[in-house]
Amino acid sequence: MTIIIGIDPGSRMTGYGIIDATADKLTYLDAGTIRTDSSDMPNRIAQIFGGISRIVQHHQKYSNQPMHAAIEQVFMASNPDSALKLGQARGAAIAALTALNLSVSEYTARQIKQAVCGYGAAEKEQISAMVCRILSLEIVPQADAADGLACAICHAHSSHSMHKLLGNTALLGRSASKKKGRWRLSEEDALHLKT
């Protein structure tokens, strides 16, 4: 049993979603949005850091289970100012997670969409619908919260695949290796994983 928090960073609204990943079953625990109410960027960063810290500490206190974090990588926006603000919000989230000793994995928007919808260019409505289906939710979460849940689901699928692969390394020509904190697979192993 592992608890995963997924973060969809934003300078105005940072979505989060928390799931329990037990074997092949994913269960919804919590989701929401941290809304910043300041026009001052340093205050927004403090609110994101504080909000994520409180959420993680609450779940760590009551669950007594290992907790992992996943966050969406920054995409290159057409507006440099927007990209900079998004990067600052993302940095605040990562700082909050690592300050509480959580390991943080990063995923691109395409990886998250692929893991949840099976299609790397899925629309937001498709992501929300699949999140509801995967987690058996009757009410569709707010868009940023759904993106946070999608990020957590992506991490659960990636972790499950990696554990499956590492459990079968004796059957593979080469084992997976960890480089700079990230797992790297050989092409041969990646093909084995797909079959």
Topology, number of strands: 7
Q: Radius of gyration over alpha carbons?
A: 17 Å
Poorly predicted runs: 162-195
**Helical segment count:** 6
**SSE ordering:** EEEHEHEHHHEEH
Category by helix and strand content? alpha/beta
Overall shape: it is globular
Order of strands in the sheet with the most strands? 3-2-1-4-5
Largest sheet features:
5 strands, mixed
Which percent range fits the helix content?
40-55%
Mean pLDDT: 83
> How many angstroms does the end-to-end distance come to?
26 Å
Proportion in β-strands: 15-25%
How would you summarize what this structure contains?
With 195 residues, the protein is an alpha/beta fold.
Descriptive terms for the model:
single chain; 195 residues; alpha/beta; five-stranded mixed beta sheet; two-stranded antiparallel sheet; globular
Structure description:
By secondary structure, the chain is α/β, with parallel strands linked by helices. 50% of the residues lie in helices and 23% in strands. The protein has helices spanning 41-63, 80-99, 109-117, 124-135, 143-167, 187-194; strands at 2-8, 13-22, 25-35, 67-72, 104-107, 177-179, 182-184. A five-stranded mixed beta sheet has the order 3-2-1-4-5. A two-stranded antiparallel ribbon has the order 6-7. A hairpin with a 2-residue loop joins strand 2 and strand 3 (25-35). Helix 1 runs parallel beside helix 2 (80-99), helix 3 (109-117) packs across helix 5 (143-167) and helix 4 crosses helix 5. It is globular. It starts with a strand and ends with a helix. The model is unreliable at 162-195 (pLDDT under 50).
